[in-house]
Automatic annotation (TrEMBL):
Residues 1-20, 293-314 are annotated as: Disordered. SUPFAM superfamilies: Xylose isomerase-like. Keywords: Isomerase. Residues 304-314 have a biased composition (Polar residues). This is Sugar phosphate isomerase/epimerase.
Length: 314
């Protein structure tokens, strides 16, 4: 397979030349591949970037040589022409017995500090890689914890991460996750209010989650979230069932969703999120990009802007 050369700020391959959106694939869906093999695969397939989950099998955020490995990875991404966003949803990276534990909501302050520490490392990695965002989520409210206490813990645990993100110039993009304290876009606004609407607090919007439980249809959800959108994940899903599905296996009508996303002017990556399909990751990576390109709106003709009006420079 031949490498796609770097083609400027929008990434590698022929994607940016023919589509206004930039598509990536998450490494949590390529967990059986070595990281370099996964990156080479995505570049060969024509993806614009990668959603990099910090985990033991790829870029271990707890490794002693993290800084050196991150510098090498930055060079590799540059060579391949891949953009990147940093994701922090590894299941057992902090605790081998508790999925996604400890969380930002745990009763033990030292446990919450461990999760905060992971996010601080993620900000450092993102700054070194030139990532467009650092993703995170709230976690599930522990048993016996009232809602007011949970929101207070979340705001306090994220405060130093937001300070670090502001210093690094990298947005922190919180994901509403079904079953978590912060489960909806409305909950994201609750957090914004609690933190005083900090500039570097943004939103990760998972399109499947919109189909699963948001009150608005996915395309309307995109439009409503647009001012705070810093990262996008995408997969198919059914209403009321939190199961990430390959495209075509769920209920989402993707052309209106991608049209709405393109209309917002969103410049980050839209990352395929299929963590339960790593057993066939290369197959789904190869299958997903053509689907998204067919569903995406065509770019405006040369010399016009996104609205179709002639550009002032032509």
């Amino acid at each position: 397979m031949s490498r796609h050369p770097k083609q400027g700020p929008n990434g590698a391959g022929d994607g940016p030349a023919t589509h206004p959106l930039r598509f990536g694939y998450g490494t949590n869906g390529l967990a059986d591949l070595r990281l370099d093999d996964a990156l080479a695969l995505l570049a060969d397939l024509g993806y614009d970037g990668v959603g990099l989950t910090l985990d033991h099998m790829h870029l271990d955020p707890l490794a002693d040589d993290l800084a050196a490995r991150t510098r090498r990875l930055a060079r590799r991404l540059d060579t391949l022409g891949l953009g990147v966003t940093v994701e922090t949803g590894a299941r057992y990276v902090l605790d081998p017995r508790r999925k996604h534990g400890p969380s930002l909501l745990d009763p033990d302050p030292q446990d919450r500090a461990r999760r905060t520490g992971l996010l601080l490392r993620a900000v450092d990695v993102a700054a070194e890689l030139g990532a467009h965002a650092v993703h995170c989520f709230s976690g599930v409210t522990p048993g016996g914890t009232d809602e007011d206490t949970a929101w207070k813990r979340l705001a306090e645990a994220l405060a130093p991460v937001l300070d670090a993100a502001a210093s690094a110039g990298v947005p922190l993009a919180v994901e509403p996750e079904p079953g978590h304290l912060l489960a909806t876009v409305a909950d994201f606004h609750t957090l914004r209010g609690a933190l005083g609407d900090p500039e570097h607090l943004g939103l990760t919007l998972d399109i499947g989650h919109c189909q699963c439980l948001e009150p608005l249809p996915p395309a309307d959800c995109v439009r409503a979230a647009a001012p705070w959108l810093r990262h996008v994940q995408i997969e198919d899903m059914r209403r009321g069932v939190h199961e990430h599905l390959p495209f075509g296996d769920g209920e989402i009508d993707f052309p209106p969703v991608l049209e709405a996303l393109a209309a917002t002017g969103y410049q980050g990556l839209t990352v395929v999120e299929l963590p339960r399909h790593s057993h066939a990751g290369p197959h789904y990576a190869e299958r997903s990009l053509p689907f998204l390109r067919r569903a995406a709106p065509a770019p405006p003709p040369p010399g016009t802007n996104r609205s179709g009006e002639p550009s002032a420079t032509h």
